[in-house]
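Q: What structure does this chain adopt?
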Amino acid sequence: MMRDSFLKVGHGPRKVIAMSGWFGSSADWSAMIPALDTGTFTYVFFDYRGYGRAIESEGEHSFDEAARDVLALADELGWERFSLVGHSMGGMAMQRVLLAASARIERMAGVAAVPACGSRMDDKRLAIFSSAIDDLDARAAIIGFSTGNRLSKAWCAHLARESARTSSRDAFAAYLPHWATGDLSASVAGNPVPVKLFVGEHDPAITAELTRRTWLAWYPNADLEILANAGHYPMHEVPVALATALENYLKHA
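A:
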């Protein structure tokens, strides 16, 4: 990974690496930055190859590759131990990092996070998401649905355009099957790492019930918190509330 393929914020002793979702990039977390305790934490907002600050980086665009890149970045920064945050697809990606180096992970936090079993999409749903690779209207429709069809269509369209601007088509297409149909659940079951799951009250896909059946069933030290007035994109919808809840959890590491 290139040295400038991530966004670093803060200078505190608590180290955190955040991994974004399929529609996102390191820029997704920007609205949270004014609310972060930069004296206690140092955050690295990671970009997968083909995304954000690493959009020009070629690769296989897999979670195995992302895990290798995260660990190489931590080595470069001199971070022996750190916590992980994952949004949506990033929830599955961070679990691959955990499997690669469990002794280095202090805590994990999932934000509307895809569980280790993936999204278990059937052919019909997979076709809908596949259409978003080349269709901005399809991306906007997915964003609208995943936030409860309660937010401005202009905002959904904006987020769709930003997702297209901050990811290469090849990377965007290649990551879909990894989180849509992949399954790491047998490998993570029983892992003792502390995990906190933040679920938006209006998210129709990553629900509290799904999270209890998956994350909380597989991680014995997992807990769940519902974020009010949020759907699938809390970092955009309720950035200050998310930053506060996240740090209330991470400060106990």
